[in-house]
C-alpha cells in the first residue's frame, strides 16, 4: 500500500482527495448491480450468518468515539428506516461511565477506524459481558475490535495517516448504509428505495469527485475566516452528523472553536449567539427537512447572521433570497448518502484554515491518531 504523500503536501489533503478511490474500494465486490433475473442487492460476507439475529434484535446500539461516532450518527436514520429496528447512539466512554443497559437481545455495533481505541474497547468488553451480539466496523484488519467482536465489516478505506479522520469517515457511512440495506428486508414496498440507494452508491465516487472541485472555493472561504474565533455549523436529519463532524474537523486541526448544532434546537439557546460577526454554516441540501432549514435560514437572517449556506446545485436562489449570504453548492445524491458529499467541503475548509493559520495539519497539538489509553 502506498503511504507516501504523492503530489500532496499533507496526508490530510491526500486523504481528502482520494475519497473517490477509497469509496470505490469500500464498495468493491459488495454491491450487486442486478439484471434481468437478479435484484440489486448488497453482499457483506462478514455479516451474512448473523443477519437474522440482527433483524430480530430488540435494538441496535451504535458505539464509538469522535469521528466514528459521527459516522454512525449519519447512518442511523437509514438503518432505522430500512430495518425498522430502533437504533440508539452511545459515546463509548459515556456508556462505560453510566454502565448503561445493554441486553442479550441487543446488537451492539462498534465503529472504530483503528479498531484499537481504549474507550471503545472497554465498551466492547462491557457489551460482551452483557451478552449482546457485537459487530465491529473497523478499518484495521486484525485489530482488537475486529478480533473480539462476533462478526463485522471492514471498511477497506486504506491506511489513514492524518490524525483527523476524513476518508475513513465517508467509508464508514457507506459501510453502514450497506449494512442497513443488508439488514432491511427486501420487500416490495421498499424495493424502489433500496434500488435508488444502491444506484446512488454506485454513483457516489463520481459525485465526490465533483464536490472536490470546490477546493479553491473552500480555500477562498478559509481566507475570509482565518482570523475568526468561532464557527457554528447547523444541520438536522441526515446532516446533523455533518454539522458535528464539520465542526470537529475545524476544531481539531484548525484549532478554532467550532460547534455543530442540531438546527431543531436553535431556538433553545444557540440563537442567542447570533449577531453580524459570528460566521454560521447552515446545511440545507434537499431532503425531507429542506423547508425547515429554509425557515432556520430566514430566522438567522432576520437576526443579521453571517451565513454560509450549503445547498444542492441550482438552489442558491431558494436558500439565499437576495444573494445576502455565501453559498456552497454541492451535487445532490440520494438523501441518506448526502452526508458523504456534504462533509467534503467542510473537510477542505478545515484543511485550508489550518494551513493558512500555520498549524500542523497532520499532527494537531495534543491529539493522537489512536487513543489507546484512558
Ligand atoms: C481519536 C482520533 C479521532 C478519531 C477517534 C476515534 O480521537 O484523533 O480522529 O475519530 O480517536 O478513533 P477510532 O480509531 O476509534 O475511530
UniProtKB/TrEMBL annotation:
GO function terms (MF aspect): carbohydrate derivative binding; glutamine-fructose-6-phosphate transaminase (isomerizing) activity
Record bears the keyword Metal-binding: no
Domain annotation SIS: ranges: 50-189, 221-364
Catalysis: reaction(s): D-fructose 6-phosphate + L-glutamine = D-glucosamine 6-phosphate + L-glutamate
The keyword Transferase belongs to this UniProt entry's keyword annotation: yes
An annotated GO BP: protein N-linked glycosylation
Pathway: Nucleotide-sugar biosynthesis; UDP-N-acetyl-alpha-D-glucosamine biosynthesis; alpha-D-glucosamine 6-phosphate from D-fructose 6-phosphate: step 1/1
Enzyme class (EC, first level): transferase
Membrane-traversing stretches: none
Keywords carried by this UniProt record: Aminotransferase, Glutamine amidotransferase, Repeat, Transferase
Protein name: glutamine--fructose-6-phosphate transaminase (isomerizing)
Organism: Trema orientale
Residue numbers of the full-length protein present here: 320 to 693 of 693
Amino acid at each position: 500500500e502506498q503511504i507516501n504523500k504523492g503530489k500532496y503536501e499533507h496526508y490530510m489533503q491526500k486523504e481528502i482527495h482520494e475519497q473517490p478511490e477509497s469509496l470505490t474500494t469500500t464498495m468493491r465486490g459488495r454491491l450487486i448491480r442486478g439484471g434481468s433475473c437478479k435484484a440489486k442487492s448488497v453482499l457483506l460476507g462478514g455479516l451474512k450468518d448473523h443477519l437474522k439475529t440482527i433483524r430480530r434484535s430488540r435494538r441496535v446500539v451504535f458505539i464509538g468515539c469522535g469521528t466514528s461516532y459521527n459516522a454512525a450518527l449519519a447512518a442511523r436514520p437509514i438503518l432505522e428506516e430500512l430495518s425498522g429496528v430502533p437504533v440508539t447512539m452511545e459515546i463509548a466512554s459515556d456508556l462505560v461511565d453510566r454502565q448503561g443497559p445493554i441486553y442479550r437481545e441487543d446488537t451492539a455495533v462498534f465503529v472504530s477506524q483503528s479498531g484499537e481505541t481504549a474507550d471503545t474497547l472497554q465498551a466492547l468488553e462491557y457489551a460482551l459481558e452483557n451478552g449482546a451480539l457485537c459487530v465491529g466496523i473497523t478499518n484495521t484488519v486484525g485489530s482488537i475490535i475486529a478480533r473480539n467482536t462476533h462478526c463485522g465489516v471492514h471498511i477497506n478505506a486504506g491506511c489513514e495517516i492524518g490524525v483527523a479522520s476524513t476518508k475513513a469517515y465517508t467509508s464508514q457511512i457507506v459501510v453502514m448504509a450497506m449494512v442497513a440495506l443488508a439488514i432491511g428486508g427486501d420487500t416490495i414496498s421498499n424495493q424502489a428505495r433500496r434500488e435508488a440507494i444502491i444506484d446512488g452508491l454506485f454513483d457516489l465516487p463520481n459525485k465526490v469527485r465533483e464536490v472536490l472541485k470546490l477546493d479553491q472555493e473552500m480555500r477562498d472561504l478559509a481566507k475570509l475566516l482565518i482570523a475568526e474565533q468561532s464557527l457554528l455549523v447547523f444541520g438536522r436529519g441526515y446532516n446533523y452528523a455533518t454539522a458535528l463532524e464539520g465542526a470537529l474537523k475545524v476544531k481539531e486541526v484548525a484549532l478554532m472553536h467550532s460547534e455543530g448544532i442540531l438546527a431543531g434546537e436553535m431556538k433553545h439557546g444557540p440563537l442567542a449567539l447570533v449577531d453580524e460577526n459570528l460566521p454560521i454554516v447552515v446545511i440545507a441540501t434537499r431532503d425531507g427537512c429542506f423547508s425547515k432549514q429554509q425557515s432556520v435560514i430566514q430566522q438567522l437572517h432576520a437576526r443579521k447572521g453571517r451565513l454560509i449556506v450549503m445547498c444542492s446545485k441550482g438552489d442558491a436562489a431558494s436558500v439565499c433570497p437576495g444573494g445576502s449570504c455565501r453559498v456552497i453548492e454541492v451535487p445532490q445524491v440520494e438523501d441518506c448518502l448526502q452526508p458523504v458529499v456534504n462533509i467534503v467541503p467542510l473537510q477542505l475548509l478545515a484543511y485550508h484554515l489550518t494551513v493558512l493559520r500555520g498549524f500542523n495539519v497532520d499532527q494537531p497539538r495534543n491529539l493522537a491518531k489512536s487513543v489507546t489509553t484512558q
